[in-house]
Amino acid sequence: MSGISVQGLWKAYPSAEDRDEVLVALEDVSLEVGEREFVCVLGPSGCGKSTLLRIAAGLEKPSLGTVETQSRPSVVFQEHGVFPWLTVAENVAYPLRLRRVPRAARRERVAELLELVGLTEFAGYYPSQISGGMRQRTSVARALADDGNVLLMDEPFGALDEQTRVALQQELLRIWEQTEKSVLFITHSVDEALTLADRVVVMSHRPGRIIAEVEIPFGRPRDIIELRRDPRYGEITYQLWNLLEGDTAAAEAVAQ
Amino acid sequence: MSEITRAVPVARPKPIQAVPLRHPWRNLLAFALIFLLLAFIIDAAQREAYDWPAFALYLFDVRVIQAAGVTLALTFLAMIGAVVVGIVLAVMRETDNPVLRAIAWGVIWFFRGTPVYVQLVFWGLLSSIYQTINLGLPFMEPWLVLETADVIPLFWIAVLGLALNEAAYMAEIVRAGLLSIDPGQTEAASALGMGWWLTMRKVVIPQAMRVIIPPTGNEVISMLKTTSLVTAVPFSWDLYTRTRDISAATLNPIPLLLVASVWYLFFTSIMMIGQSRLEKHFSRGQLGHGATPKRRRRQDRADRAPVVLASPETVAAPSGAGAPEGAGMSDVAGMTEGDAR
User: Fold this and answer.
1) What CATH superfamily classification does B58-290 receive?
2) CATH code of the domain in which A244 resides
3) Does A223 contact B187 at a Cβ distance shorter than 8 Å?
4) Cα three-residue angle B201-B206-B208, rounded to 5 degrees
5) Residue ranges of chain A with per-residue pLDDT less than 70
6) Which of A59, A127, A131 sits opposite B187 (nearest CB)?
7) So what's the pLDDT on residue A255?
């Protein structure tokens, strides 16, 4: 069985302006994320890619179609995902507490996870006392504390500055290579998509449809700085941008 | 490739010779005020009208202590009622049901828009307006007829009147608290597999408390003082009305007013202390507040840690693409060193 299986997914919202109309956010979206596969969904803003993730996470109901995941997915949000009244360590321990893992085992697992994301020094800090990058690492560590092997990420590094983002991308790859997770990663960044993914799913402007799937040929483990010297990097970047641009042009043509 | 030029060393600035700023006018004003205050105290201690012996006599009078107890009971019972009704009204105002929303709005509109004194008079006249309480089905002979004045004692009328008035204010406070929670928090909770009730109990309400507690504390203090209006019901066993009644017999109102004031002040002072404790508890995780001393010490130690990470070896990573991991990490550590304050 695959990690995540999305079949014929539609999502429509009632229009705010006209009660008789609906806005179609997702139009017949189907995609598979294989076991231990890293798939990025790339699309312009407002294309419904976050809606896709929210449906996969069970936060919204599809209008039509199904989403199956191998286990209950863990989610890393763009922002506001960590609990501000808990310390970093308590945040990471939270899913374990919900599952009533005994204290000793919990402490051991939290120490492991903090080590993995490099936050051991900051275990006792509150989220407001650390940087945005560290908050996102906390969020990642908390998602990893869930035992499931499906990880959903909704532009987790979108609000970070570029250097922090690159550092965290590299770390995410390192961490992911040590786990058994299937990852669905939402992004609007071409660079991010082709840096991280095994496969990039490109979505169109609203209504969100899948317009292409691009296999990324880079092997694992990846050094994401070295990657940028690879001649294929430029080639794929060009290809992905063309897909996005072509879609924008088409959307404008339809609008006129 | 472009050359990287070296940074030019800058000379250290000279140490600053600091001279404290002088405030002659401020000092003069302070002296004048202290003098006036002392003069007032000395005068008051000697002034006949305050009648300090009577004050001392009545301060711990059994009737006064009982009345203080009644005032506390009125305050807390009315507040509990107000919080419960306030939460219900707040939730009603946030529902999708337009009828519930409108009803909640109307209730808040009425109780906020009329003086509490007038409301209390109304509640006092309840037994004149509705002389009997009839239990049964509408349009049929009632099964049971009760005299309103018999079943609802004045004490509970006072509690009811105070609580309903206060509920309108509490509703707005609770609503502000619920609205202050980032929707991302509830989403994160439900992504962790928490149900609606668990999310409310563990995520939303504790965080909303941070917003709800400070104004609620003020409301409690304000309620304690508002209880002095229950004489409008007319209920006469609270602190103010009781001391008035005593002084009506002794024809000596001033020392009893002082007695009542001291008791009110005593209670409000305790409440203020309690409130600041609660605020500290619920503001955990907020910048600059509430980190417990133990944690603060731990942070101090951790504060120093990143400095070690940013030692020359890690910072001076080759400028090429050779060591992205090391360079990336030290960037993050260096950045957080500043941010972690």
Assistant:
1) MetI-like (1.10.3720.10)
2) 3.40.50.300
3) no
4) 110
5) 1, 251, 253-256
6) A59
7) 65
